[in-house]
Recover the amino acids of this structure.
């Protein structure tokens, strides 16, 4: 490590997470604010280049390497950890606070990793703390969903590690580099591991399964970190992999379709993470400078508005105890501030002018147009119609308007309002002054979002999407029940697998057990009195010489008789 | 939605379509970009398509009871 301005942000986060439990109880919430703030400073002050290395066996590991791409992601990860910590300031569960910081340690560590082993270490570091944020809800459902989530990520980690080991064995290189499209089996393995964390369909089912069951505060960190860390790695290692364009577009539309079917408000938002990350994955696949810039910018914007949306939805759940649109409604007059703060996030994700989604989503879409992917351009625009329909119209309509259900929300903590206000501030700030974000991007590409054509197109789309929604709003109402997703393929056969591998095995085991028990029992009985085996039922349970005296007497008489007979015969002869 | 809001919305919609005529987009994204008002139709019918397609998929295949995974 060089000068003191050169401390790796993940060290700051890790130290913070580890000393947190030893601090005085009341100071811990303050520590959760100070640590990400220090990490943010560490990200900004670190010079470009390699700042920390470590010799590990025969390899020189690069633990802390900074360039413009990693700085953008490091900045937003540290910032959102700060905002999430403000939102969770009232939480007094130390394990949850420490888990959030450890989780952020992993995300920031991946961002600044210069070699594959370091990347894998921090990648795995994210799994358990993030699963804990699901478990911390302490319901039976969250327990099981958290376990499914963890197993899924351990599987992804195994794919990633297998790919890394194979790659290193093949090439002898361990430093992170761009892998040429479709070059080797090892790169496909690495891609699969990363795609799982990016929630690329069909490896996405963990996300809408677990996020709605996480704690109100934990879901904010979840919505921000895991998928966007994976997007960062895609941009770093896999730019220009054409398959990512198709996967990304498919994700963008898949999320939209499933959001129609969602009834849980955070379930709806979860599907829109998949949809939005689809834009970034497609951006990585297009791989041009504008596309990489767009994907990075959109990840930055997305983290801000999506956390704001999760905080808004979380506030509703926190104050009413209800999470389903079929049980919510009529809250607008009772919590107007929550509604309006949520709507700032909704305007942002829907790409309203003057909000940050407008200046970043359009960059990805424009990159598709520039690279002559016209169908991609059209489909991504269609997905953005769906985004506005659900996040901007359906969810708020059925949560804060719709049917009055006589709910009386409890008061919301001041820190929760504050966190939402900070996120909302940044959503508007970058929307109004896009240059602030553009200057941070890896490539210097001039992109003007506020053109007359773009504004006209956006206005037409938004206004007429609203009209269609208003006419058919009854049709999109949430319906009680759940919608199947690809998790069916492992949750349903789980019963069959249970029957084959647990129930049947147990039955065989029981029968063998019974057989052995009976065998041993009869063996014991025989061992007690082996004579009984030969002479049958006449003998007692245990060996006793008395039982056999008559028999011995008879034997002696016969022997004596024989003796007499022989003696007599000898006398005669 | 009261009358004033509908009026404002109508005005906005009309203005956006009019702007499409005054400043026609270049054919950068495809032939459709040059059609004034294309994106109004795209928004309206896109929205409808998403609703109908998703609900159809839900009805024929995906909607299940809340306790679907708990049952035997």
């Amino acid at each position: 490590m060089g000068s003191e301005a050169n401390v790796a942000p993940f060290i700051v986060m890790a130290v913070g997470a580890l000393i947190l439990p030893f601090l005085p109880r009341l100071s811990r919430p303050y520590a959760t604010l100070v640590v990400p703030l220090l990490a943010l400073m560490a990200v900004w002050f670190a010079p470009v280049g390699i700042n920390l290395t470590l010799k590990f066996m025969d390899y020189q590991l690069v633990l802390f390497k900074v360039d413009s791409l990693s700085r953008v992601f490091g900045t937003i990860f540290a910032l959102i950890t700060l905002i999430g910590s403000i939102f969770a300031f009232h939480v007094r569960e130390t394990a949850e606070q420490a888990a959030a910081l450890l989780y952020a340690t992993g995300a920031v560590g991946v961002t600044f990793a210069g070699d594959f082993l370091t990347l894998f270490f921090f990648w795995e570091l994210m799994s358990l703390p993030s699963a804990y944020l699901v478990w911390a809800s302490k319901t039976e459902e969250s327990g099981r969903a958290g376990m499914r989530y963890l197993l899924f990520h351990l599987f992804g980690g195994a794919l990633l590690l297998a790919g890394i080991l194979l790659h290193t064995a093949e090439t002898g290189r361990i430093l992170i580099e761009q892998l040429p499209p479709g070059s080797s089996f090892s790169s496909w393995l690495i891609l699969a591991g990363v795609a799982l964390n990016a929630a690329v369909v069909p490896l996405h089912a963990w996300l809408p399964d677990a996020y709605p069951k996480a704690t109100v505060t934990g879901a904010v960190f979840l919505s921000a970190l895991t998928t966007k860390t994976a997007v960062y790695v895609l941009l770093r290692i896999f730019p220009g992999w054409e398959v990512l364009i198709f996967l990304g577009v498919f994700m963008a539309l898949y999320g939209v379709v499933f959001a129609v079917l969602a009834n849980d408000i955070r379930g709806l938002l979860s599907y829109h993470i998949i949809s939005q990350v689809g834009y970034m994955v497609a951006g990585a696949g297009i791989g041009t400078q504008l596309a990489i810039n767009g994907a990075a910018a959109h990840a930055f914007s997305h983290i801000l508005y999506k956390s704001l949306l999760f905080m808004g939805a979380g506030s509703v759940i926190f104050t009413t105890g209800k999470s389903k649109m079929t049980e919510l409604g009529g809250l607008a007059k009772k919590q107007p501030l929550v509604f309006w703060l949520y709507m700032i996030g909704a305007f942002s994700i829907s790409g309203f002018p003057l909000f940050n989604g407008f200046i970043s989503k359009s960059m990805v879409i424009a990159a598709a147009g520039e690279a002559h992917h016209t169908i991609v351009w059209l489909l991504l625009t269609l997905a953005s119609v769906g985004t506005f329909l659900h996040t901007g119209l359906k969810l708020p309509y059925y949560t804060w308007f719709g049917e009055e259900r006589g709910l009386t929300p409890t008061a919301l903590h001041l820190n929760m309002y504050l966190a939402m206000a900070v996120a909302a501030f940044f959503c508007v700030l970058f929307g109004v002054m896009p240059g602030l974000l553009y200057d941070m991007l890896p490539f210097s590409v001039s992109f003007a979002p506020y053109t007359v054509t773009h504004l006209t197109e956006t206005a037409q789309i938004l206004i007429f999407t609203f009209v269609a929604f208003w006419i058919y709003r009854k049709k999109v109402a949430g319906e009680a029940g759940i919608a199947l997703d690809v998790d069916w393929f492992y949750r349903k056969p789980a019963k069959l697998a249970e029957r084959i591998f647990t129930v049947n095995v147990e039955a065989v085991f029981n029968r063998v057990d019974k057989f052995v028990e009976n065998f041993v029992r009869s063996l014991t009985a025989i061992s007690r009195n082996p004579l009984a085996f030969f002479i049958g039922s006449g003998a007692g349970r245990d060996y006793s010489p008395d039982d056999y005296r008559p028999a011995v007497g008879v034997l002696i008489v016969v022997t004596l008789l024989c003796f007499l007979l022989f003696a007599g015969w000898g006398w005669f002869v | 939605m009261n009358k004033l809001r509908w009026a404002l919305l109508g005005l906005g919609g009309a203005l956006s379509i009019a702007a499409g005529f005054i400043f026609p987009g270049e054919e950068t994204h495809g032939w459709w970009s040059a059609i004034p008002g294309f994106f109004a139709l795209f928004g309206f019918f896109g929205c409808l398509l998403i609703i109908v397609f998703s609900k159809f998929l839900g009805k024929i295949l995906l909607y299940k009871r809340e306790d679907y995974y708990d049952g035997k």
